Amino acid sequence: MDSYKLFQDYLGLTTIVWANDLQAHMEEIMLQPWQEKDSNDLGISVDHFSAFDPLELMRLDARDDFQSNGIDADLDELDMYQQQLREQTTVEKLIVESTDNPVLMEYLALKEKRRARKQKKCCAFCKNNGEPASVYQSHVLKDSEGRVTCPILRKYTCPFCGVSGDNAHTIRYCPKNEGDAPGLALLKTSRLSTGKRRSISK
């Protein structure tokens, strides 16, 4: 019994993938006489396609397309409509579409809010604590399920209840904190998460 050879073509895939002479093979197929039927399953005569050159047809289509869209003609109807859509703001689009269907208006407004929220990738905790933009724009405070994703807040342990990680919070938001929350100035540390000293603005 022969041993397994790593580079042996057991399934003959090289003959499928790499045709030695693709052009000759295509010419042979195109010039083959059609002997089976005079028409195909669609009822179209095969003689109609005997002088068919697909490359020439593509060239003619490309030339016509260029003449109608490139030089000889102005913008067609579809191009003008697309240009109008690009120029409209989202609010204008919603106003236009809301006249037809109020349910659609509500759905589109909700969808727009979600899209705007997803685009705004910013951690409010880090931003309020004076972290550089490169830090607070690199993540969000919580995920869609309400779990804390901010790496700095996740490491923080609440002194009142001892919670950290997914449910981490500051003293101000602690459910066991019954008294007045200390001001933001007391919550800020003297150093940023990067270790640099915080600049004190007065």
TrEMBL record:
Keyword Zinc-finger: yes
GO annotation, biological process: regulation of translation
Keywords: Cytoplasm, Metal-binding, RNA-binding, Translation regulation, Zinc, Zinc-finger
Subcellular location(s) per record: Cytoplasm
Tagged with keyword Zinc: yes
Molecular-function GO terms, alphabetical: RNA binding; zinc ion binding
Database matches in Pfam families: zf-nanos (PF05741)
InterPro entries per record: Nanos/Xcar2, Nanos_sf, Znf_nanos-typ
Domain spans labelled Nanos-type: 122-176
Transmembrane segments annotated in the record for this chain: none
GO cellular component annotations of the record: cytoplasm
Family per similarity comment: Belongs to the nanos family.
Name the record gives this protein: Nanos-type domain-containing protein
Organism: Potamilus streckersoni
